[in-house]
Each structure stands twice: as C-alpha cells, then as structure tokens.
Amino acid sequence: MQSPKVKKLVTLLSRLPGVGEKTAARYVLYLLTTDAEIARDLGAELATLHEELRPCARCGNIAEVVPGEPAAVCTICRDDRRDGKLLCIVGRVHDLQAIERTGAMRGRYFVLGRLLSPLEGIGPEDLPLPRLLTRIRDEGITEVIVATPPSVDGEATALLLKRELAPAGVKMTRIASGVPHGGDLEYADPITMGRALAGRQTL
Question: What is the domain extent for residue 19?
C-alpha cells in the first residue's frame, strides 16, 4: 500500500500535462531514492515560481520579476536589436518558444493567451484585442504576422484578427502551413497538401 504522502504527490504530478499516474509514480520514487538535495532544490524553485515569474507586461511572454521595477518585462521585449515595427501574434507562450527556436523571427511578439473557441465559450471579448490595438498604434507597428495554429480555432482567431486590425492599416501576413520537413507526402492530409501547393515558392 502506498503511503498517503506518496499518493498525494502522485496525484499532484499527474495533473501536469503529459504526465500519467505511472510516470508520476516513477518521478516520486526517483526523488525518494536519489540525492535529497534534488528534491529540496526542486521544491524551493516551485515554491517561488509565481513570485519570481510573471507574464510580460508588454507581450505576455514569461518574464522574471526585477526588484524595484513596476512591471515584469521579458528579455525579448528588452532586446533593442529586435525590429520594433514587426509584431508576431501567437496564441500561447508555447507557440512563441517554438518560433524562437527557429531563429527566424527578428521582431517582437504578442501572446493572446487563448484562441477564439465558441465551443469553449471563448469569444472576441475574451481576447486582449484592445491592448493589442493600443500597442500597434503606440509603437508604430508596420507589419503583423498572425502565427495562430492551422486548427479550426486558430483559423477563426486569424480571421477575427484580420477584421479587428484592418482599421489600423498595418500590413498583415499569415504563417504558411504545409508538409513538415522530413515528412512523407502519403501521410499528409488533404488540407495540409492543399496549403502546401497554394503556398508554393519559386524554386
């Protein structure tokens, strides 16, 4: 029989995305049988997670709280080498990180935090559109890249952004979607193949 302490830890860890009960149990057993300092360090970092990290006040990315500063600002927004006129709109921080890993984005970001989803009760009023429009106006943004995922909710959000940002008069572009690098064409779905053909470039 597991002890109440182990059961509680397994239950808590199982609530993390991608972590099932068996994986959570392995994590707990590992922490119990390895150097106790690892568990102490992990606990200390988790205990201060929400005090030391905040959403960036400008873009919504993860930012460290700096004592004495009124708001947390992430390293991307602080980077003066970035193109301040180019803004990439993403749905989640995960998407921002995925784009950053490519090294191809030279501008800055705006994280919506969620996507338009009528089935989940998320409407236009639940998206930070007024803050986005204010930023575009105040920072003189000239191009907006809409980088929402090629899903039903992502496409609906992209169409909403196109409509709402039209009065701002900025150039709007949409990330292309097609066959992934290294993928076989026979496994690509019709929508993906259609977009790959429509988004073809000169060879």
Answer: 1-38
